[in-house]
Amino acid sequence: MTPADMEREVIDICRKAVAASRELAAVDGKTRSACLNLMADCLEGGSTAIIEANARDVSAAVASGMSAAMVDRLTLNEARISGMASGLRSVAAQTDPVGRVLEKRVRPNGLEIVKISVPFGVIGMIYESRPNVTSDASGICIKAGNAVVLRGGSEAFESNKCIVSILDRAAVDSGLPAGVVQMLPWTDRAAVAVMLKQDRYIDLVIPRGGEGLIRMVTSTATMPVLKHYKGVCHLFVDHSCDIGMAVKVIVNAKCSRPGVRNALETLLIHRVIAPRFVPELMKAMREAGVEMRGDDEFRSFAPDAVPAVESDWSAEYLDLVLAARVVPDVRAAVDHINTYGSRHSDGILGDDEADIAYFQSRVDSSTVYANASTRFTDGGEFGMGAEIGISTDKLHARGPMGADELTSYKYLVRGNGQIR
Questions:
Q1: Cα dihedral value 73, 78, 82, 85, nearest 10
Q2: How far apart are CA 68 and CA 284, in angstroms?
């Protein structure tokens, strides 16, 4: 296919999405929710085909030398497909985010001004590895009345193609317009570059993947981008914490799924508790197969830890590696996080209410925890059913993004002949 032919096809896909989005904006919330429920049923009914397609992707990924953590992100099974379906049903059951009256006022001249929530229109979604994003993004976009153009990573191409086929068929069977869910049918990166120039058709693009992908999208796109760069998540073990509780939370945050963005990457430890805490931590980390990298003070209690270097403090390992540093107090912990963190998810473990208040008010991240794992930063765990991403931006959404975050607003103004 020539570059000109590809560009024409991308534009055709985008135009079809625009046409679908205009029809979809007029579809009532019950119909959109019914579509999501049918999509969920069809995903479960098509699980055999999805797993077969996914097996081809996984086999190619293993042969290419992809890390175990990234292969885990790619892999689908019955349980994960059921989770995708559950996410769609949960989104379907939520309050309709479209047409909500956000504000209403009557001016002195009698003009009635009503501010209501409306869909964006067409969402472009560019993402890597995790094929469950195909389902989550499609469901959330439709719930919010948007059409979506998807471009997943080449490593999940077969999985995504199968999932999109099932979702598209279910959408049409539900009475939604053709084109509400589409996928760029190429692995060629040139198609992404063309897509990112279609600001005439795509209202918002959301990249979800590695920092390199997100920076490329941000620098190339001619439409607004809602982004998150990295998930450099921290936990701070305060002087007052329960050691057993802290170790349990840390093991979960680091080890439950190390290849995801809300996994723990750096641990900060209050100097007062370090002599008692570090030996218990090291025992648990050895059992979990985690490589520890520490500063000099941390290594004075854990001499078998690898010496940390400056780059470790801003590293997103996405693997069973954890950086650790001993700090003098909560203020130093906050300073470290605001210097090296990515504004994703950070937390404090302890019982000192003054320190908790200081930490939560001053850490500049989308989600700030006290005595809980960072792994809860997730649309499903936040009651959104699923998420389209986790934004570390401040405009227009921050943290886990569900259907509410995929709406804009407009003003409806009614008068009786007023002139200015």
A1: 80
A2: 21
